[in-house]
Design goal:
Elements (H helix, E strand, L loop, with lengths): L4 E4 L4 E4 L17 H14 L4 H7 L7 H9 L7 H8 L4 H11 L1 H11 L3 H12 L8 E2 H10 L4 H17 L8 E2 L13 H7 L15 H14 L9 E5 L15 E2 H6 L3 E2 L11 E5 L8 E4 L1 H9 L3 H14 L17 H13 L13 H14 L9 H14 L1
Helix pairs in contact: 4-14, 5-7, 6-11, 7-14, 8-9, 9-10, 13-14, 15-17
């Protein structure tokens, strides 16, 4: 799994995202000097077969930077609704530029899809969100970030492996040390913002120059993203996301990415395609995704949506990528007819979390951020109080739980 963060520099955002929905917490303290740690790391790298000249070339960049620790500690869940976030992402020229990129590289995308089974629309969507089509790939040497975070106590094992693989990228001859330029704190590379380990393991040489260059080569970049998605389980020729309309009454507890039903069952329950599109009553399995509850937009999420979650585990990010890819493939904008969804503010979410904890629904430390753990607790609470169990936090649920808390006192 990739680092749980992404950057959209054109919007001025540097967003940290966690699957758990809990904010990053500094729960450990660094001990021992960075210099001693680095000396031990260099010995370990050499013992693992990395040539001394590669280690020596990277050494001036492998320095400790406190600002990187500060940025890492500050990351938390980005608490925007799907519609608000996707509106920001697709605002301006990002959508049209995506269309233009698909036209400009039509032959490349067609060839990549034939070989890897991943359509150009979903690759373009990732390309647009990760770096605005290569315009914003970062201008910091990643060895500083990786060395700092590998020394840091919070995720040292993960970043130590990343740092070793960054050295292996240089050893393999894909990039020089000076070309290892990427994000300014998390150490991701290229227009698709690959981690060093994903780069080392999944990058491919698609332009035939003998190097896997995801910094300068568009063919290498696009094909490597397709190869990575195939590795994550992408299924050739299958859909990933389809907007649907849901009836007023539905077994709402079945709207969960961990639950799949054949499309025939969803049709039987009254789910139909949006915008007049047909929803075949066949055996293809899908989950019902309600990113903003039963009153917001609704989608059928297929197995390929699960593959996208391997790229980045943030639900709002992956839903936006999937939606953007569907738009680039010809789907119309989401139908907002009559849609009025109230999104709770941070202090309201925190109160809800406190109420859930008091009544035995464990959400961990209340932090005002809605993640998977909070959504699961919301679903359980909705079922207990007799509300439609769509996992979406509302003021109505807060009011019900306030009453329950009063009754318990």
């Amino acid at each position: 799994m990739r680092i749980l963060k992404f950057a959209v520099p054109a919007l001025g955002l540097a967003l940290g995202l966690l699957l758990s929905g809990q904010a990053f917490a500094a729960t450990c303290q660094n001990t021992g000097s960075f210099e001693h740690w680095l000396a031990d790391f260099k010995k370990d790298a050499a013992a693992q077969g990395i040539p001394p000249q590669v280690i020596a070339a990277a050494a001036p960049h492998m320095r400790f930077e406190q600002r990187i620790i500060a940025k890492d500690r500050a990351q938390g869940v980005f608490n925007l609704s799907f519609l608000k976030f996707s509106d920001r992402i697709l605002a301006g020229q990002r959508y049209q530029n995506g269309v233009n990129q698909m036209k400009a590289h039509a032959a490349l995308f067609a060839k990549v899809e034939r070989e890897y089974g991943v359509p150009g629309s979903i690759l373009t969507a990732f390309w647009g969100l990760e770096s605005d089509y290569g315009k914003n790939t970062g201008n910091s040497n990643i060895f500083a970030a990786l060395a700092t975070l590998a020394y840091d106590c919070r995720r040292s094992d993960f970043f130590r492996a990343q740092l070793l693989d960054a050295l292996r990228i240089v050893q393999r001859g894909d990039l020089t040390v000076d070309e290892m330029m990427g994000g300014d704190w998390a150490g991701e590379l290229g227009a698709m913002q690959f981690t060093a380990s994903d780069y080392y393991k999944q990058a491919v040489d698609y332009d035939g120059d003998g190097k896997r260059n995801l910094v300068k080569s568009t063919p290498d970049t696009v094909a490597s993203a397709a190869n990575y998605l195939r590795h994550l389980g992408w299924k050739r020729g299958e859909p990933w996301l389809q907007e649907v309309k849901v009836p007023r009454e539905l077994p709402w507890d079945q709207a969960d990415l961990t639950i799949q039903h054949p499309r025939s069952q969803w049709v039987k329950w009254g789910v139909r395609g949006a915008h007049g599109a047909a929803l075949p009553a066949d055996g293809m399995k899908a989950s019902l995704l309600l990113p903003m509850g039963r009153l917001g937009p609704a989608f059928l999420a297929y197995d390929n949506f699960q593959a996208l979650l391997g790229w980045n585990s943030s639900m709002v990010y992956v839903t936006t990528v999937a939606y953007f890819g569907a738009r680039l493939a010809g789907a119309p904008p989401v139908d907002r007819g009559g849609m009025e969804v109230e999104v709770l503010q941070g202090h309201e979410v925190k109160e809800l979390q406190e109420l859930l904890n008091k009544q035995g629904f464990d959400v961990g430390e209340p932090d005002g951020k809605v993640g998977v753990k909070t959504r699961s607790a919301v679903k359980q609470a909705q079922m207990k109080v007799g509300m439609p169990a769509d996992s979406f936090p509302t003021m109505e649920l807060i009011a019900r739980l306030r009453g329950g808390a009063s009754a318990q006192r």
